[in-house]
Write a structure and sequence with these properties.
This protein is of the alpha/beta class. The protein is built from 9 helices and 8 strands.
Length: about 220
């Protein structure tokens, strides 16, 4: 039975834990406190939680950081002593690190041993955790510089209502996941101001054009 470790007692982390354990994967979710782990273990979950990071990562096939983007680095530092070459390493966080402007895969690369760099992949997509938790259909993409790594992660992650695609365009996937939110905020503001669908369509179209241009300029 495959084993997945999820780092982060977040909405997204718990959603992924439920999704994967529901298809028979052994899932350990790591929490920052013993009290959090005890509370989760008292609930009706098909996965278990622990505050012991070594226990969470021991023998895992896939380690997923499902934490806010600005907290990723400190969580990678916390876990790096327990990572091995037999594990796939996945960021499920979207965003850019505020202090450095780095993408999430770059943050992970900064902190883990060089020999583990080939195991990194990223998960991104237009996903609302609440809908996925309720079993509604959704899709996402896993990207890695090594497409073989992405496909291995795909096999571990795909579920009946959660379609996973693969890509080797890590830069494009990470930038798309982070920068689409700017367009979403702008579209919401246009709705709030009552400026109409024409204005919103123009804004979204122009926004995606600029996002693609930026991605290409940054190497996507």
């Amino acid at each position: 039975m495959p084993k997945v470790a999820i780092i982060g007692n977040t909405t997204w982390g718990n959603t992924l834990a439920s999704l994967l354990s529901g298809k028979g994967t052994l899932v350990k979710l790591w929490t920052r406190s013993e009290a959090e782990a005890e509370e989760l273990n008292q609930g009706k979950h098909s996965y278990s939680s622990t505050h012991n990071i070594k226990e969470a990562l021991d023998g895992t096939d896939l380690a997923i950081w499902a934490v806010p983007s600005q907290k990723l680095r400190q969580n990678v530092i916390l876990t790096k002593s327990y990572l091995t070459k037999s594990m796939l390493l996945m960021s499920a966080a979207k965003g850019l690190e505020a202090d450095t402007g780095k993408r999430m895969s770059q943050v992970i690369t900064d902190e883990i041993p060089l020999a583990l760099g080939e195991q990194i992949c990223v998960l991104s997509g237009p996903n609302l955790a609440k809908e996925i938790a309720h079993g509604l259909p959704a899709a996402a993409v896993i990207a890695s510089h090594d497409i073989t790594v992405a496909k291995k992660a795909q096999e571990l992650m795909k579920c009946e209502n959660f379609t996973i695609f693969t890509s080797d365009d890590v830069i494009g996937v990470e930038l798309g996941g982070a920068l689409k939110n700017i367009i979403a905020l702008g579209a919401g503001m246009i709705d709030g101001l009552g400026l109409g669908d024409n204005a919103k369509a123009a804004f979204i179209t122009r926004g995606w054009t600029e996002l693609v241009s930026l991605g290409i300029a940054l190497g996507a």
